[in-house]
């Protein structure tokens, strides 16, 4: 292969590596909980933990 072709290939490979690095950085960022999951957690907290905590508090009063 000719020298200019090798340099062009090297430039393209470097560009592809940069794109891959950017994509990996985006996928490695921690994501928060979605809104439906937050509502489910809130509902379960009231349904399960609420009665348990109120029972425990009433025992000590």
What would your notes on this structure say?
The protein is mostly helical. The chain folds into two domains: 30 residues; 29 residues. Helices cover 85% and strands 0% of the residues. It has two helices and no strands. The longest helix has 26 residues. The N and C termini lie far apart (87 Å). The model has no long low-confidence stretch (mean pLDDT 87).
What would a concise description of this structure say?
The chain has 61 residues and is mainly α. 85% of the residues lie in helices and 0% in strands. The chain starts with a helix and ends with a helix.
Index terms:
61 residues; mainly alpha; rod-shaped
Specify the biggest β-sheet. none
* Series of H and E elements: HH
Instruction: Classify the beta-strand content into a percent band.
Output: under 5%
Question: Considering DSSP H and I runs of 4 or more, what fraction of the residues is helical?
Answer: over 70%
Unreliable spans: none
- Name the shape in a single word: rod-shaped
Structural class: mainly alpha
Instruction: Count the beta strands.
Output: 0
N-to-C CA distance: 87 Å
The structural domain count equals 2
Alpha carbon gyration radius: 28 Å
Average pLDDT: 87
Number of distinct helices: 2
């Amino acid at each position: 292969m000719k020298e200019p072709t090798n340099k062009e290939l090297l430039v393209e490979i470097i560009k592809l590596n940069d794109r891959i690095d950017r994509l990996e950085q985006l996928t490695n960022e921690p994501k928060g909980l979605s809104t439906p999951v937050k509502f489910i957690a809130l509902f379960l907290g009231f349904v399960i933990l609420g009665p348990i905590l109120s029972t425990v508090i009433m025992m000590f009063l």
